[in-house]
């Protein structure tokens, strides 16, 4: 049996026993995590996700990808050039089990990005976000530059309270910035400081 899961904005077709490299997850080597955003299990296609399905995997190691060189050169008089290297942080996993149903009751830690605050076990990030909002999540639109669309992105990433944003480290903020494609907006707008003030009430 195979499944198609979604994580880090990418889709992966996996079978039990497969080795998988995904964008860095908030998990340590030896831990078992569960992916809940499942697009397909066998011939069953989700809309948008297959309800109750999940893919469990064991974290083998936190690694870095191959170096990518970014080189820019401007020709003509007074030319300039710049060369930068980058190695993406990744998590190496081994798929252990594919669940067609009952994933929400498995009790296994949900697989979330390293820049996110931990989500409840056995719940899809999107569903967890909805539960938190209905239970009284903060109005994230109070942050400068955050509208309904951006607030929705935060909810899908499991961020529903100012205290979560205020607790980000620089590394976590950079990871969330890259994950949501914010182009440095977290730092430019000073969301962490704003969130800290708003969290105080």
TrEMBL record:
Protein name: Large ribosomal subunit protein bL21
GO MF terms held by the record: rRNA binding; structural constituent of ribosome
Record NCBIfam families: L21, PRK12278.1-1
Record field: transmembrane: none
Keywords: Ribonucleoprotein, Ribosomal protein, RNA-binding, rRNA-binding
GO CC terms of this entry: cytoplasm; ribonucleoprotein complex; ribosome
Gene: rplU
GO BP term, pick one: translation
Subunit structure: Part of the 50S ribosomal subunit. Contacts protein L20.
Keyword Translocase tagged: no
HAMAP family in the cross-refs: Ribosomal_bL21
Family (UniProt): Belongs to the bacterial ribosomal protein bL21 family.
Any single Pfam family the record assigns to this protein: Ribosomal_L21p
Keyword Repeat set for record: no
Function comment: This protein binds to 23S rRNA in the presence of protein L20.
Organism: Rhodovulum bhavnagarense
């Amino acid at each position: 049996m195979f499944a198609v899961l979604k994580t880090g904005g990418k889709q992966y077709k996996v079978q039990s026993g497969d080795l998988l490299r995904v964008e860095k997850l908030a998990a340590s080597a030896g831990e078992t995590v569960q992916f809940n955003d499942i697009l397909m299990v066998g011939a069953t296609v989700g809309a948008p996700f297959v309800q109750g399905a999940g893919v469990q995997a064991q974290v083998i190691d936190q690694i870095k990808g191959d170096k990518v060189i970014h080189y820019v050169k401007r020709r003509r008089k007074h030319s300039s050039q710049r060369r930068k290297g980058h190695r993406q942080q990744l998590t190496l996993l081994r798929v252990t089990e594919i669940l067609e149903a009952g994933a929400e009751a498995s009790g296994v830690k949900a697989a979330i990005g390293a820049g996110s605050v931990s989500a409840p076990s056995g719940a899809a990030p999107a569903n967890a976000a909805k539960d938190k909002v209905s239970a009284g999540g903060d109005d994230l639109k109070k942050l400068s530059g955050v509208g309904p669309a951006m607030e929705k992105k935060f909810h899908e990433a499991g961020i529903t309270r100012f205290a979560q944003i205020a607790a980000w480290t620089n590394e976590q903020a950079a990871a969330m910035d890259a994950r949501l494609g914010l182009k440095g907006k977290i730092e430019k707008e000073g969301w962490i400081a704003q969130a800290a003030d708003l969290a105080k009430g």
